[in-house]
Specification:
The protein is an alpha/beta fold. About 35% of the residues lie in helices and about 15% in strands. The chain has 8 helices and 9 strands. It has a 6-stranded parallel sheet with strand order 4-9-8-5-6-7, with helices on both faces. A 3-stranded antiparallel sheet has the order 1-3-2, with no helix packed on it. α6 packs parallel to α7. The chain starts with a strand and ends in a 7-residue tail after the last helix. Bound molecules: the ligand N[C@@]1(C(=O)O)CN(C[C@@H]2CCCCN2)C[C@@H]1CCC[B-](O)(O)O and manganese (II) ion (3 copies). One manganese (II) ion binds next to loops.
């Protein structure tokens, strides 16, 4: 997590007594890893796999993100898979009430437990988070702590190119704003970002929760991920998104998820994926390619 640019003159060496480090003019504090408990016999419930483990993990993550926000930082959550957006956005909303969510992803991750083709919760987080689908989420063990906290009108997707038919129906029914790779090609990324910000700021300027799935980038850049899909964002488009969000001054939390070294076939694939994720986060905190 990172605070705004401190006044350099008043600061001592990079490390000071609050175990903060200063990088790129940001005060960076490492809140450590959220440890997750192993859950034995975590049998699926209907079409939801690992509900108990995922529910308790997200409850812990939610508390951690809440603490980071209460300390006044912009929160950086490094995943893990995209089911962690449940805890990250819950914890953020507990501290900041009204949020806008920019979801950068090849996928919509808005399957409900009933529509999911795989039962994997990483394809469902948005359905747990939005008010409009609350009635479609069954009671699940270890999920009683959470409640919907985002409105459909406060969401924008960027990078969509692998959306299930049921997800497409939900997006259309709820009128959720999205820029698929077709729109990115048609409009260009700068127009997409201009429209995205006009849309989320059209009424009230809400803090932004940027939930960045590394599989939004083309697999040629970030192959070490669970569900790669061809035809993704270029490195430049991916970084432009973060630079544009940064300059709004409204970024309040960012998830960087689905970076999975185990899915890299070579060391180079892993390094390329991790370096892209690092550069995306640097873009969120003011690193400009012009220097
Ligand atoms: N919609 C999905 C789900 O499992 O719900 C199905 N899809 C895989 C499937 C393969 C065959 C062609 C259609 N797509 C992955 C996606 C979840 C991605 C989660 B993310 O966090 O990586 O975005
Ligand atoms: Mn995944
Ligand atoms: Mn995702
Ligand atoms: Mn994805």
């Amino acid at each position: 997590s990172c605070k705004e640019k401190p006044n350099r003159q008043t600061l001592g060496p990079p490390w000071n007594e609050f175990d903060m480090m200063y990088m790129n003019g940001c005060a960076v504090k490492d809140y450590g890893n959220v440890t997750f408990e192993e859950v034995a016999n975590d049998e699926p419930i209907g079409n939801v796999k690992r509900p108990r483990a995922v529910g308790s993990a997200n409850q812990r993550l939610s508390a951690a993100v809440h603490a980071v926000k209460n300390d006044g930082y912009t929160c950086v959550m490094l995943g893990g898979d995209h089911s962690l957006a449940i805890g990250s956005i819950q914890g953020h909303a507990a501290a900041k009430k009204d949020l806008s969510v920019v979801w950068v992803d090849a996928h919509a991750d808005i399957n409900t437990p009933l529509t999911s083709p795989t039962g994997n919760i990483h394809g469902q987080p948005m359905s747990y988070l939005i008010h409009e689908l609350h009635s479609k989420i069954p009671v699940l063990p270890n999920f009683s702590w959470m409640k919907p906290c985002v409105s459909a009108k406060d969401i924008v997707y960027i990078g969509l190119r692998d959306v299930d038919p049921e997800e497409h129906h939900i997006l259309t029914l709820l009128g959720i704003k999205g820029y698929s790779m077709t729109e990115v090609d048609r409009l260009g990324i700068s127009k997409v970002m201009e429209e995205t910000c006009d849309y989320i700021f059209s009424k009230v300027k809400k803090p932004i929760h940027l939930s960045y799935d590394i599989d939004a980038l083309d697999p040629s850049i970030s192959p070490a991920t669970g569900t790669p899909v061809v035809g993704g964002l270029t490195y430049r488009e991916g970084v432009y998104i973060t630079e544009h969000i940064c300059q709004t001054g409204m970024l309040s939390a960012v998830d960087m998820v689905e970076v999975n070294p185990k899915r890299g076939k070579t060391e180079d694939e892993i390094i390329s994926t991790v370096n892209a994720a690092v550069d995306l986060i640097r873009g969120c905190f003011g690193r400009l390619r012009e220097g």
